[in-house]
Design goal:
The complex is a heterodimer of chains A (55) and B (306).
Chain A: H1 14-46
Chain B: H1 19-25, H2 28-44, H3 51-75, H4 77-80, H5 98-119, H6 122-143, H7 150-159, H8 161-170, H9 175-206, H10 211-214, H11 217-240, H12 246-268, H13 272-305
Helix pairs in contact in B: 2-3, 2-8, 2-13, 3-5, 3-6, 3-8, 5-6, 6-7, 6-8, 7-9, 8-9, 9-11, 9-13, 11-12, 12-13
The chains are: A mainly alpha (55), B mainly alpha (306).
């Protein structure tokens, strides 16, 4: 059996963690912007008609 | 598929890139020109578009152009690291791996095309897809390294955005939008060849068959002059076709004559600092020329719409 402490794979430096965090934030912002984009275009294109559907 | 030899490269570690490095892959300066010309195409087009939908279209076209830039940098990383002008790009600088750039470019290309199709119209979406295909496959992969007319072909890719902008409004192409295409298409060769004349050392080192390298500087000067003579009347065409006003007509005629005069200057001065200076002057003026033509079209359409 391998000692568990030796088998941790790649350890990121603080600098790399910082970069990863800023990339994650950028992806989150992009996804959020897409949600808003599709929502607003739906309202713009359908307007009140968005509610006009068979229930 | 291209095999890129990374052996002499600064080894880029996957996952080591900053957000700014990814933004640099989008070629922001090219993107700003694309946004500008696409916006003009959109505003000059007949009929209206909801301002928000118009904004979405511009963003999609910009992202599509950025995706083309990223895919171009992925494919051209091997020659980018040879030329001083491109050596600091994210891949040759070792900030982003080729695979990361490829994945980023493909994701943005598909995303921008699908979004433009779903939210604006599918004709514009298909046109954007064709533009990306043309720039990445036809220009970057196929013709850039195999023909000295590469700039002419690449110019076509750069000339599509106003047509895509126009198509976002009308869902079609027309003679007017084709003229906007033609202006950029005729403008690109003299613009880039003027640059290539004073950067030909770089292109020679990288083995890119730019015209001054392959056909010689004299032939390049002939080409610059011919394209300038073709460009000047095309620049005035929007006035004669009735989708630009008299201010545009007068200004484009004067600017066209100045363009030809500067191209003739490049043609006359073959040696030394005077030749170099003439090339730089034409290069700088060409940027001003294109910007002013499209700014005038934009201004006139805004005034007419007010």
């Amino acid at each position: 059996m391998m000692a568990e402490e030796e088998d941790r794979g790649i350890t990121l430096t603080d600098e790399q963690k910082k970069k990863r965090r800023s990339r994650s934030i950028a992806i989150a912002v992009a996804l959020g912007a897409l949600v808003v984009l599709f929502y607003v275009v739906t309202i713009v294109k359908l307007g009140p008609g968005v509610l006009n559907r068979p229930l | 598929m291209a095999y890129i030899d990374n052996s002499s490269d600064v080894p880029a570690l996957a996952g080591g890139a900053r957000v700014e490095d990814y933004l640099a892959l989008l070629k922001p300066r090219v993107m700003s020109l694309v946004v500008f010309t696409a916006l003009v195409g959109m505003l000059v087009a007949p009929g209206g578009i909801n301002p928000f939908v118009g904004l979405v279209a511009i963003v999609c076209i910009a992202i599509g152009a950025g995706a083309s830039g990223a895919l171009n940098m992925w494919y051209d990383a091997d020659i980018d690291r040879i030329m001083t002008r491109t050596r600091k790009r994210p891949i040759p600088a070792g900030k982003i791996t080729g695979d990361e750039a490829l994945a980023f470019g493909i994701t943005l290309a598909i995303g921008s095309v699908v979004t433009l199709g779903l939210l604006v119209n599918w004709f514009a979406g298909a046109f954007l897809a064709f533009t990306i295909f043309f720039y990445v496959i036809v220009y970057t992969m196929w013709l850039k390294r195999s023909t000295p007319q590469n700039i002419v072909i690449g110019g076509a890719a750069g000339a599509f955005p106003p047509m895509v902008g126009w198509a976002s409004v009308t869902g079609s192409v027309s003679l007017e939008s084709f003229i906007l295409f033609l202006i950029i298409f005729m403008w690109t060769p003299p613009h880039f060849w003027a640059l290539a004349l004073f950067k030909s050392v770089d292109y020679r080192a990288a083995g890119v068959p730019m015209l001054p390298v392959v056909a010689g500087e004299t032939s390049t000067r002939h080409h610059i002059l011919v394209y300038s003579l073709l460009l000047a009347p095309v620049g005035v065409a929007p006035y004669f076709l009735g989708f630009a006003g008299p201010v545009y007509g007068a200004a484009s005629a004067l600017l066209g004559m100045a363009f030809v005069a500067l191209a003739a200057d490049v043609w006359r001065k073959r040696e030394g600092d005077a030749a170099r200076f003439a090339c730089i002057r034409l290069f700088k003026f060409s940027i001003f020329y294109l910007f002013l033509l499209f700014a005038l079209l934009l201004g006139e359409s805004l005034v007419a719409g007010a």
